[in-house]
Amino acid sequence: MTTSARSDGIQMLLQAEKKAADKVAEAKIRKAKRVLEAKADAEKEMEFFRKEYERKYKIQEDEVFGRQNNIEAQITAATQKTLDMQNESVRLNRESTLQVLLDTVLNISPHVHVNYRPKQKV
């Protein structure tokens, strides 16, 4: 074999190695791109599930707090109704109650208590 044939063989081998290295580099780039795409897709999916769970949580939270607010409103309404009824009762019975109280205080009938024993003079 001559030196030119060897050098042609070496050149072909170097070119083949370069092509192989280029293909490996292209494969690494494609793989990195797929990894980035997969990561972006996973982040989008996680964001979707996070928003969905937040939405469901918000619905449940509103339902619970809504019940609490409803109970609070019912208690407030019942309290106000009771106060109104008591105020109405006071308004209706004030005069008659005052009259009974005044009659009791002013109409005193003095009498001696049944257990009273007068002291005898010695």
From TrEMBL:
InterPro entries per the UniProt record, alphabetical: V-ATPase_G
Keyword Transferase among record annotations: no
Homology family: Belongs to the V-ATPase G subunit family.
Origin species: Hymenolepis diminuta
Assembly notes: V-ATPase is a heteromultimeric enzyme made up of two complexes: the ATP-hydrolytic V1 complex and the proton translocation V0 complex.
Keyword Transport set for record: yes
Protein name: V-type proton ATPase subunit G
Coiled-coil residues: 25-52
Pfam families cross-referenced by the UniProt entry: V-ATPase_G
GO term, biological process aspect, one: synaptic vesicle lumen acidification
Primary role: Subunit of the V1 complex of vacuolar(H+)-ATPase (V-ATPase), a multisubunit enzyme composed of a peripheral complex (V1) that hydrolyzes ATP and a membrane integral complex (V0) that translocates protons. V-ATPase is responsible for acidifying and maintaining the pH of intracellular compartments and in some cell types, is targeted to the plasma membrane, where it is responsible for acidifying the extracellular environment.
Keywords assigned: Coiled coil, Hydrogen ion transport, Ion transport, Transport
One GO cellular component, as annotated: presynapse
UniProt GO molecular function: ATP hydrolysis activity; proton-transporting ATPase activity, rotational mechanism
